[in-house]
Amino acid sequence: MKTKLGDLLGVSPEGLERCGVFNALVDRDSLVYMDPHALLVAKLPELQEALARFRRYTSGLVRLLQVSNRSDDVFYSEVVNELALGDMNIHFSHAISRGVCGLKPEMGASVTSTARKFIRAGITDMELFTLIFVLEGIEMKRSGAMMAKVILPNLFSYTERVVKELNIQSGLYRHQGKAYQVPFHPLDGKPIILMPLELLSFKPVAYDWNESDLISASNDVVRMMVTPQLGTNWKAAFENCFPSVVKKVMLLHPSLMGDLIRLYRSKKGNPVTPSMVV
C-alpha cells in the first residue's frame, strides 16, 4: 500500500496542495530533484527570500575567488570547504532515496577551480556555480546541493507556516540557533521538512536544453569559431560532447558562459505538479 506524506501527517491532499507542499510517497524513492532555477521564478514568499539569501551567498564566494591569488591560499580554501558538502542527510522519503546528495571533496575542488577561471574573465553571476556543475559532469542529484545547504532556514520557515495553517502536529526543532515548529516522523523521530512543489523538477533546467537554445546567438564570430566543436545549439553540445570538451571551449571563449547564463535565466522551468506521478 502506498503511504503518502499527507497520510503520515493526517492532512488531506487538498490541504497540502493548497499550500504548495510536495505530497511525497514516504516508503519509496521519488524521482524528483531540487532545482536551483526554481528560485528565479518562485512565487512563495519563503522562496523569494531564499533567492535573496542564495544571491548573498554566491556573491560571497565570488568575492573570495576574486581576491584569491593561489589555489592554496585561505580565500580559495574557504570556497573549496564550502562546496565540499558531503552527505546532507536530506531525503524525499523514509526509504533509501536520492534525496539531496552533497558534493564529494574532489567535486568541490573542481567546481572551485573552474569558477575562479570564469570569475577572472569577468563572469560573476549567481547562476555561474549551477552551470559549472553541468560542465564538471556532476549528476543531477547533486545539482541542488549547494542551494539546499544555503536555503534550509527558508525551508524551515515554510514548514512552520504550513504546520500552523493546516494545524499539523509538531514540535520544536532548532537549526542554526533558531527554533522552528516542524512535524517529526513517528518511526525515527527525525524532523520533516515540507518541500515546496515549485522547488522540485524531474529534470533541473541546467540539464535540460533544446535545439532553439542557440550557442552565441549574439556573436557571429564566436559562433563560427565554436560550431565545429560544439554544434549550433546547447542541446547538441551537452549531448554530443564530453563535459570536459564543452568546458575547455567555454574557457577559451568566456562570453559563451555569459550567453548561457542569459538563456538559463530566460527559461520557464520544469516544476512538478500535484497531478504528476512521483
Fill in the keyword field for this structure.
278 residues, 2 domains, two-stranded antiparallel sheet, mainly alpha, 12 helices, two-stranded antiparallel ribbon
Task: Please describe what this structure looks like.
The protein is mostly helical and 278 residues long. It folds into two domains: 5-208, no CATH class; 209-268, no CATH class. It has twelve helices and four strands. It has helices spanning 5-9, 13-18, 38-41, 45-67, 74-83, 105-120, 128-135, 145-166, 220-230, 234-240, 243-252, 255-266; strands at residues 33-34, 171-175, 178-182, 200-201. Strands 1-4 form a two-stranded antiparallel sheet. It has a two-stranded antiparallel ribbon with strand order 2-3. A hairpin with a 2-residue loop joins strand 2 and strand 3. The protein is globular. The two termini are 15 Å apart. 42% of the residues are buried. The model is unreliable at 94-98 (pLDDT under 50).
Helix content percent band: 40-55%
Low-confidence stretches: 94-98
* Morphology: globular
Gyration radius, rounded: 20 Å
Averaged pLDDT, please?
89
Brief write-up:
This protein has 278 residues and is mainly alpha-helical. Helices cover 48% and strands 5% of the residues. The strands form 2 sheets. The chain has a two-stranded antiparallel ribbon. Strands 2-3 form a two-stranded antiparallel ribbon.
Write the layout of secondary structure elements.
Blueprint: H1 5-9, H2 13-18, E1 33-34, H3 38-41, H4 45-67, H5 74-83, H6 105-120, H7 128-135, H8 145-166, E2 171-175, E3 178-182, E4 200-201, H9 220-230, H10 234-240, H11 243-252, H12 255-266
Antiparallel strand pairs: 1-4, 2-3
Helix pairs in contact: 4-5, 4-8, 5-6, 6-7
